[in-house]
Design a protein that fits this description.
Alpha-Beta Plaits; five-stranded antiparallel β-sheet; globular; single chain; about 5% strand; alpha+beta; 5 strands
Length: about 425
């Protein structure tokens, strides 16, 4: 019972540290969701050469997209003309960090880590994208994406005024996507802090490249989002893991997992998937070595919670508010609603698609956008649970719609009565 109480205390302490920064990050992410539309990103990622790779890496740094959400977005970018190199750069830099995770990193690991982490993600995106451009041949250049529907792009959900859209994304959509991972990360951090002896990992793993390789092997196959990984990294550092080894975990955990690699293998050539994994591994190890070298310099020290703290009451109030936001996001049914759908057409053709693999609201939005861009489609209602899309229009090609959704990395089965069905 004492151990449970200790875990609860550690959970609350970490939550209080990160809550003010995470709430601000949520709201800032809402602003980005309004200012940075998919169409804007796509306009800058087309063409050949390295300049689109640079822009893709820079675009990806502040966007609050996790590994599961960035895959369909990246596939959509590819389908709308982004080069394979630029798409790879975006897929590498985006899930490793975001405005919310940068602020949480500052709150728990201090300013040096908060700067070093996005810089490392940027370098990873540049190296991976450049490697694809140089090694993947002509396929790394612009795309016409044969499985995508040839229609003008749109900017996604734009209903409501600007303030409403900011708060809806920042305090409903984004928390709903990361709440479960965040709570799991906080619990894991609490367990490590309560159960693992001090300096346990220092004695077990030691310092240097050996501990980083262990973190690399741990981080590559599992999935943890960029924000939820921070409290786990802070707990590992407190128990003896070096900052550099923790950075390796922070880079590989959010950007690689079995599902991500399999999807990249599918939507792009296998060589690109190999370059993707290799660039993550090499950049993570190099970044970890560089960070440890920085903290080993004379006069430079590292400690968890090393920055100036906010007043205690601010953390407490923010923690209560954050728990309320998380609670509402978890209790709110994950189904098609005003945020996820466009009003249905009054009549015409209808098709039902059963979609496997959608995990968050970004997946829903990507599917809806891909479907609505297909010629003849007038509306699409996409529900995360039970994983279904109701498509309405006039004389649209159901197989083309299916291919457009599969091009995002999802598995699709067309309902048996869909083809040729009319609605009256």
């Amino acid at each position: 019972m004492e151990a449970v109480w200790t875990v609860a205390l550690e959970f609350w302490a970490v939550l209080g540290e990160m809550a003010p920064y995470l709430l601000f990050g949520f709201l800032f992410a809402g602003v980005l969701s309004v200012l940075v539309s998919p169409a804007l990103v796509e306009r800058h990622l087309g063409g050949s050469g390295l300049w689109p790779v640079v822009k893709a890496a820079v675009f990806g740094i502040p966007l609050p997209l996790c590994s599961c959400g960035v895959i369909p977005v990246g596939a959509s970018l590819r389908a709308h003309g982004a080069s394979r190199a630029a798409t790879t750069s975006f897929l590498l830099s985006t899930p490793q960090t975001g405005i919310d995770s940068i602020l949480v990193t500052y709150s728990l690991l201090g300013p040096v880590f908060a700067v070093f982490r996005p810089v490392a993600a940027l370098v990873n995106g540049l190296i991976g994208g450049a490697a694809v451009a140089l090694l993947a041949g002509r396929h790394a250049q612009g795309s016409t994406a044969a499985n995508a529907c040839d229609a003008p792009c749109c900017s996604g959900d734009s209903g409501g005024n600007v303030v409403t859209r900011i708060f809806k994304y920042g305090l409903i959509t984004l928390p709903r996507d990361i709440s479960k991972s965040l709570l799991i990360g906080l619990v894991v951090a609490g367990v490590i802090a309560a159960v693992v002896p001090d300096d346990f990992f220092a004695g077990l793993l030691g310092a240097g490249i050996g501990s980083m390789l262990v973190m690399l092997l741990l981080g590559i196959p599992i999935y943890v989002c960029a924000t939820a990984s921070v409290p786990v990294a802070a707990a590992l550092i407190a128990k003896g893991v070096t900052p550099g080894a923790a950075l390796v975990f922070l880079m590989t955990g959010p950007s690689t997992n079995a599902a991500t690699v399999a999807t990249i293998w599918k939507i792009m050539v296998p060589k690109t998937a190999v370059i993707y994994l290799a660039s993550v591994a090499v950049t993570a190890l190099a970044s970890g070595i560089a960070l440890d070298a920085f903290f080993s310099m004379d006069g430079v020290s590292f400690a968890v919670h090393s920055h100036e703290m906010l007043p205690g009451w601010v953390g407490t109030v923010s923690a209560v508010v954050l728990l309320g936001v998380i609670g509402l996001s978890l209790l709110r049914p994950v189904k098609a609603g005003p945020a996820d759908v466009v009003p249905a057409a009054a009549d015409g053709q209808m098709a039902t698609l059963e979609i496997s693999g959608m995990t968050c609201n970004h997946c829903v939005q990507s599917v809806q956008r891909a479907v609505q861009e297909c010629p003849g489609v007038l509306s699409a209602e996409v529900a995360l649970s039970p994983g279904r899309a109701e498509v309405r229009g006039k004389a649209f090609d159901v197989e083309a719609v299916r291919r457009a959704v599969e091009g995002l990395g999802f598995r699709v089965q067309v309902g048996p009565s869909s083809i040729g069905q009319g609605v009256h």
